[in-house]
Amino acid sequence: xxxxxxxxxxxxxxxxxxxxxxxxxxxxxxxxxxxxxxxxxxxxxxxxxxxxxxxxxxxxxxxxxxxxxxxxxxxxxxxxxxxxxxxxxxxxxxxxxxxxxxxxxxxxxxxxxxxxxxxxxxxxxxxxxxxxxxxxxxxxxxxxxxxxxxxxxxxxxxxxxxxxxxxxxxxxxxxxxxxxxxxxxxxxxxxxxxxxxxxxxxxxxxxxxxxxxxxxxxxxxxxxxxxxxxxxxxxxxxxxxxxxxxxxxxxxxxxxxxxxxxxxxxxxxxxxxxxxxxxxxxxxxxxxxxxxxxxxxxxxxxxxxxxxxxxxxxxxxxxxxxxxxxxxxxxxxxxxxxxxxxxxxxxxxxxxxxxxxxxxxxxxxxxxxxxxxxxxxxxxxxxxxxxxxxxxxxxxxxxxxxxxxxxxxxxxxxxxxxxxxxxxxxxxxxxxxxxxxxxxxxxxxxxxxxxxxxxxxxxxxxxxxxxxxxxxxxxxxxxxxxxxxxxxxxxxxxxxxxxxxxxxx
Length: 505
Fold this sequence. Notes:
22% strand; disordered N terminus; 37% helix; elongated
């Protein structure tokens, strides 16, 4: 009994090296979610475990972290690329991944706290400090990325903890130490580089990209990381600044901020040239071998992301095409191709799907709006909307271009107006007999912003055929539409450009 009182051996099962190896070996290889869930359970138990020596606890967390990485990559692929992921399954994968990075950060924070508290045996952690700091900042970065997959919200507390982790790495002299963060990686990183990657991620306006595009953008940021400029002094090349001691994200350097010893400045540096070379290469059908995108992607998916980053990394920030005016007015909104077609056909919303949003700014190009009561899971980048401003009699057609959650029930969106008038028509392939009984293709004709003799047509997915002329009746005239190209595709629509020939027959 007396001996047990003085025993330093922890009672946690993973304190035994053989049990730790067994727990890792028994992680299911064919079920990524279950494997991550088991590691999460071990993480939770380690947060309150007693008796571990500082280095022993760190090593236990390190091994579990490394064992989970292949399973986390599989969960990410499932989340981003599964074609028919249910809302429940999507939420399950999102929750598991965010929980992993949150608990991992807390455990690495615990190791650092024990080192700074000068616990007995904590000096043994000193050689591991570069790895602990870099992985801690990586964990925070992944928390932000997964929140961005859901378009926020991001609490200021994360930015403060992230900044404190970076400043602590600096003060302990390990921020710039290069090392491989995980076994099998081909390139080295450091606490400073991981911090800079998070800053550039935020500065790249991910709120206008889809989740799979956000993942691609982060990979491209990682590829360009050595090109970025980062330091404590502002120079002619500086574009952004941040104060890591404050719970605030980085912002554009439009004027010098109030002096503080913790201010940091950063810029894309030579990365725009690297992007330009990548764009040329991808346009020719080649992705350089040294660019790790985490998978094979078609050029039509990579190029928009490259152009997006090039625009936001330019020395001059992208300017708004139209001036915004602050307003406060209600918008009646219906979503999706079918509902929009019904509206422009003159048929009322019969199933109660219309929502009331609040427009808080307006320009010639569109609206900024608040969604006070999120309903369902349809709202996303690229969603097609029909909108009627309060007091107006006409409907507008638009697409969601930016999306950010302000809470679980409220969001802010940026909407591009496609047309202030749309004609609902029934389209028929020219080759179809006039007496055929087959139903036509529903479509909406848009003439806003088009050259004379051209028209855009919004149709259901896979309706466009570059070899097929279409015809329809509109405004008392017979129209012949000759295909030109497809401009945009969404989950339930596509927008194509046609040449328009009219006749009175």
